[in-house]
C-alpha cells in the first residue's frame, strides 16, 4: 500500500491551490514541534518531566513542567522560519513577537501547548491544539487586536493527541485529515482521510460533578439522557469524560458524541472554562469541517467576535442533532 506522509499531503494541498507555500511550511513546523513534544511526553518520569514547574500561567493556574517544555518547543520551532507575524500561547500573557533578526511572514499562530495538564502526572492522554489566522494586511507589527478575529477566519486548525499512538489532526478548510506518527520513520502517515462525525449519537461527555452549578437547559438535557429508555429520549446513553479536551474531541471525531463544558456558576464570572482562541475556535473549525456543530449553547462558536486573547467561553460541540437539541433547549423560556 502506498504510504502518504504529511509532507506529501501538504505538497499536494499546495499544488491544488488550497494552501500557500508559507502555510505549508507553518504546518510542517508545527508537526515537527509536535514530534518533539511527543518524545518528551512519552519519556515521562524517565526524563524527569513530570510534576509542577513551580510557576503560574496567565490564568493563575499552576504550570506543569511539560506545559512549559511544550510551550518552549512550539515558540522556538516557529520563530525563525519566516512564515509568522507573531504567536499567542495559552501559557503566555502577551503576544509573542518574532525576534527582530528573523524574517516575518503573514500568519498568526495560536496554541494551547499541552491541553489536559491535569492528566500529565497520571499518564493519561494529553494534546496540543493550534489555530492559524492571517495577520490583517497593513496592520504592521501584530498586537493583541490583530489576533481578535472570529473563528470563521481561521485558515487552518488542528491538534495532536499524545495517546497510545501520537496522532495529528488537521483541517485547512477542506475536510478533516488524520495522520499517525510512525516512530521508527519519524514521519506522520496519512491514516484517516476525511474524518466525519455522525449526526446522531448515544454518547455524551461532560464533567457531571458540576451538575449543581449548571444552567437549567443543560441540566434538563443531561437529565433526559440519564433517564435512558425510560425517559423522553427512549434509548440509553453512555457517558465518557477524559478531562483532556483533545482526547474527548478525538473520540467524537472517531465515533460521534457530544462534548460539553457549559456555562456554570463556578466559571460564570470568567465566561466559561475553555479558552476561545486556543481551544474552542480550533476545535469548532475541526468539528464543523467533519460535519458536526459547535456552539456556546446560544451562538455558533465560529461567529463569536473575540474581545481578548485569553477569553473563555462555554462549549457544546459534536454530533449535529444533539448540539442542535442543546441549543434549542437554551432558546426555550
Ligand atoms: P488545560 O488547558 O489547563 O489543560 O485545561 C483544559 C482542560 C480540557 O482539556 C478539559 O476538557 C477540561 O479542562 C477538564 O476540566 P475539568 O478538570 O473541570 O473536568
Ligand atoms: Mg487546554
Automatic annotation (TrEMBL):
Substrate binds at residues 115-118, 207, 273. It is an enzyme of class 3 (hydrolase). It is found in: Cytoplasm. Gene3D superfamilies: 3.40.190.80, Fructose-1,6-Bisphosphatase, subunit A, domain 1 (3.30.540.10). SUPFAM superfamilies: Carbohydrate phosphatase. Pathway: Carbohydrate biosynthesis. Binds 2 magnesium ions per subunit. It catalyses: beta-D-fructose 1,6-bisphosphate + H2O = beta-D-fructose 6-phosphate + phosphate. It comes from the Bacteria. Mg(2+) 2 binds at residues 112, 115, 279. Keywords: Carbohydrate metabolism, Cytoplasm, Hydrolase, Magnesium, Metal-binding. The keyword Metal-binding applies. Its EC number is 3.1.3.11. One of its GO terms (cellular component) is cytosol. Signal peptide: none annotated. This is Fructose-1,6-bisphosphatase class 1. It comes from Pseudothauera lacus.
